[in-house]
Amino acid sequence: MVFEKVKHTIMDILGIPKDEILLESHLYDELDADSLDLSQIILELENTYKIEIENEDIANFETVEDIVKHVESKLS
Length: 76
Known about the structure:
By secondary structure, this protein is mostly helical. It has 4 helices and no strands. The chain is globular.
């Protein structure tokens, strides 16, 4: 379920078709996100799940899976 929300958020912010967004998709190289895009994605997820994601953690996100795993860890 978290993956679907992350995928939908990326789709909305980056305008990428959802079938092109995979867990292993690299945020910068494959999805062409920049730091502002990533900030918007994180803000949306923080608001949706009522969590806080630290800047140090965000700096380590390279793939969609990195975001999904981090959000899931915050929810458990």
